[in-house]
């Protein structure tokens, strides 16, 4: 059975990624194994997906993610292992690049998280897109890239950071203080355009610090001061005003400890954030658990 025929059979309907594989393996220049290589098919993959992602709406993006999940979950397609890995790497790099670096639209980010949340617990899974790396300035290889959370921290996109935190991504980080350090100390980029309006990076940085304080019980001021002693300069001079004293000096509030405990239980069962709204508690408390206040 030919590769392209097999790929068509494992996809019950027209699948963007199966069709893309078909186009690649049918190219005469790729019929011989010795000529297969990243550089041979990466441009074709990027151009095809970029053409879709440039103009896609939420419904179209939903279809694209559904196709990607169906493609990855289908096992046994008889391609070389290296090609499988490289193909998915290029697809993930392209999707994340357009969602986070080019569009920067909170609705697209939330849809991506919603569609892939069932895979978050396995960070090695190709469907756990929030843990995959991408290159903010597009480059064919994502091996030297960064995660979406780190990119959002670098660019201080507070509206997107809030959504990522609501899904419990910061709680899953091994060293969450690194995200706080990035928000505070990473060199400022060119201001971000959102709906053709300039966003004040400094105000966004303040909001990002406040959001992190809603998730963490402890923020190490000592680590921040150590970085400052090495000559690094914070993006906002009065940064300590945006970290509650109960995160580094005074006893943590009981209400906040309750929030952390409940969110941790929901996170264990992969129920953030939707599980919050099934709890039989007042709406005001649900919003508090969902980092609204």
Structure commentary:
The radius of gyration is 21 Å and the shape is globular. It has a two-stranded antiparallel ribbon. The protein is mostly helical and 293 residues long. 55% of the residues lie in helices and 1% in strands. The protein starts with a helix and ends with a helix. It is built from 14 helices and two strands. The longest helix has 23 residues, at 81-103.
Main features:
mainly alpha; 2 strands; 14 helices; 293 residues; single chain
| Number of DSSP E strands | 2
Query: Per DSSP, what share of the residues sits in E-state strands of 2 or more residues?
Result: under 5%
Tell me the span between the first and last alpha carbons.
58 Å
Strand order of the largest sheet: 1-2
Question: Which structural class do the helices and strands define?
Answer: mainly alpha
**Poorly predicted segments:** 1-9, 193-198
Query: Helical residue percent?
Result: 55-70%
Rg measurement, Å: 21 Å
Order of helices and strands: HHHHHHHHHHEEHHHH
Name the average pLDDT.
Answer: 87
General shape: globular
Biggest β-sheet description: 2 strands, antiparallel
Quickly count the helices: 14
């Amino acid at each position: 059975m030919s590769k392209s025929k097999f790929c068509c059979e494992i996809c019950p309907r027209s699948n963007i990624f199966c069709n893309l594989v078909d186009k690649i393996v049918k190219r005469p220049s790729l019929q011989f194994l010795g000529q297969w290589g990243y550089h041979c098919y990466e441009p074709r993959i990027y151009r095809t997906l970029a053409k879709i992602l440039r103009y896609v709406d939420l419904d179209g993006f939903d279809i694209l993610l559904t196709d990607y999940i169906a493609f990855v979950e289908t096992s046994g397609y008889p391609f070389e292992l290296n090609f499988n890995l490289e193909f998915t790497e290029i697809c993930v790099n392209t999707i994340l690049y357009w969602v986070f670096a080019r569009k920067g639209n909170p609705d697209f980010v939330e849809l991506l998280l919603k569609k892939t949340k069932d895979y978050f617990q396995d960070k090695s899974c190709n469907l756990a897109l929030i843990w995959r790396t991408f290159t903010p300035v597009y480059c064919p290889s994502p091996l030297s890239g960064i995660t979406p959370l780190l990119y959002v921290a670098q660019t201080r996109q507070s509206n997107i950071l809030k959504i990522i935190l609501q899904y419990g991504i910061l709680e899953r980080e091994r060293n969450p203080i690194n995200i706080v350090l990035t928000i505070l100390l990473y060199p400022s980029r060119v201001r971000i355009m959102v709906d053709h309006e300039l966003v004040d990076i400094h105000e966004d940085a303040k909001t990002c610090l406040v959001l992190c304080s809603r998730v963490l019980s402890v923020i190490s001021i000592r680590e921040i001061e150590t970085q400052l002693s090495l000559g690094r300069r914070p993006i906002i001079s009065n940064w300590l005003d945006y970290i509650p004293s109960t995160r580094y000096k005074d006893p943590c509030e009981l209400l906040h400890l309750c929030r952390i405990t409940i969110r941790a239980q929901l996170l264990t069962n992969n129920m953030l954030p939707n599980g919050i709204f099934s709890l039989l508690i007042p709406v005001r408390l649900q919003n508090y658990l969902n980092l609204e206040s």
